[in-house]
Amino acid sequence: MKRREFLAAGATLAACxxxxxxxxxxxxxxxxxxxxxxxxxxxxxxxxxxxxxxxxRGDLLLQGHAxxxxxxxxxxxxxxxxxxxxxxxxxxxxxxxxxxxxRENRLLTAVRAGGHSVSGKSTCDGGLxxxxxxxxxxxxxxxxxxxxxxxxxxxxxxxxxxTAHGLATTAGTYSDTxxxxxxxxxxxxxxxxxxxxxxDNVASFDVVTADGKFAHASDEENPDxxxxxxxxxxxxxxxxxxxxxxxxxxxxxxxxxxxxxxxxARDAARFYRDLAVDAPESANLIPAWYWNDGTPSFGVGVCxxxxxxxxxxxxxxxxxxxxxxFNEVRSxxxxxxxxxxxxxxxxxxxxxxxxxxxxxLTDDGIDLIMDVxxxxxxxxxxxxxxxxxxxxxxxxxxxxxxxxxMQFVLAIWSGWPTSDGVxxxxxxxxxxxxxLEPLTQGLYTNYVGTDAAAAGLRENFGGNFERLxxxxxxYDPMNLFRLNANVPPKV
Length: 491
Known about the structure:
The chain has helices at 6-9, 46-54, 68-72, 92-105, 155-163, 179-184, 192-195, 223-229, 262-277, 308-320, 334-339, 363-374, 422-436, 454-461, 465-475, and strands at 12-13, 26-27, 32-35, 41-44, 60-62, 85-88, 109-112, 128-131, 138-141, 146-150, 167-168, 202-208, 214-217, 238-245, 247-248, 252-261, 283-292, 295-304, 326-333, 350-358, 381-386, 408-416. By secondary structure, it is an alpha+beta fold.
């Protein structure tokens, strides 16, 4: 076989039996077209690719290889990208080998854990994807109130294993989201007002840095790296495991939804705002302005994680306000609440979002939100994350995550089953966000699309930005890990 014929034919597996517990070794690999960090074309020698594969316990997938197409796809169908190589890592040793290969060849590199990235940065064209999907597992130590979580694990697994012991920690609002991406950039969730951000609850990280070395980061070991990983995203390495602090909690919560017709939406939203600002920390109330069968509505998603009798009493005013069109809040397993919205954003959905932090939700702001939604029927929904409480107990410089004074995160989101008309739809959403953006300051990087400007990220990190730049310069001076909310190293 001629060397370049491989690009069309794909690699073959060695005929010899692989070592027990190891994948087959690639043979007959021709030159592989790839892309460097600066976007230049690169030809990887087949022998180098074979050596790379031989050093992995997991598969190395190339275009044309069985399993490649299934593995390259990510949650957001907007991104149909084709990496040159996908390293399916089974543990930290595979991750180290992949990082070393990426660094030696200056390959464009993406890291995929849960693959739930709104911005699609867990994949790339022509580069290397370090895929952690096989690294899934959660071990709970009930007496120590700790969960040890492999980086490819989804949040539903963390919730399930923790609540089995009457314990929990903040873990997003969708059970099929990856724990790693959520946590590294902050991590809001239904328990956040009670327990803090997901990143606030990490006691330690295991991480492979850009030099291919393994490091443990905690208050005692590599404390600078520990600081940066709590909110600084994937800028500093590939996290392979998390140690979360867990908290006692009844695994059955009060959860559900209360909604009002559009003619009551303005008053209901203002009533909600006044209630939410001073809500007990056990209350998480997520407001949304949305379209329901062609009709605009306003609703509040409820999760009360404290004493049920207290919650029933406290929630009465919300449930009794006006004439709700839907009003169901009941005792529900927390894991069911966490997974109830999964079907609304299935894998492969074409998704777009914009967001920003709200210091307050004013009457004028509510009016503008309603006006913007009503002018584009059915195209997108608008919602807020409910903040305050334990989120604000950390000082702005205690972790890399800077926005501790917010009351809400305002977001505009939509998803479509196909790419039909997607450019026009996104253009309309961007226009809508230009009207809403003046209400906000900064942004939550987990909700950021591909069009976030570097200047916005600098502003967002505020006084923490220069410290992050210094940290990036120490741990990743070549900016190998740039497919993220990127903090550049010093030139």
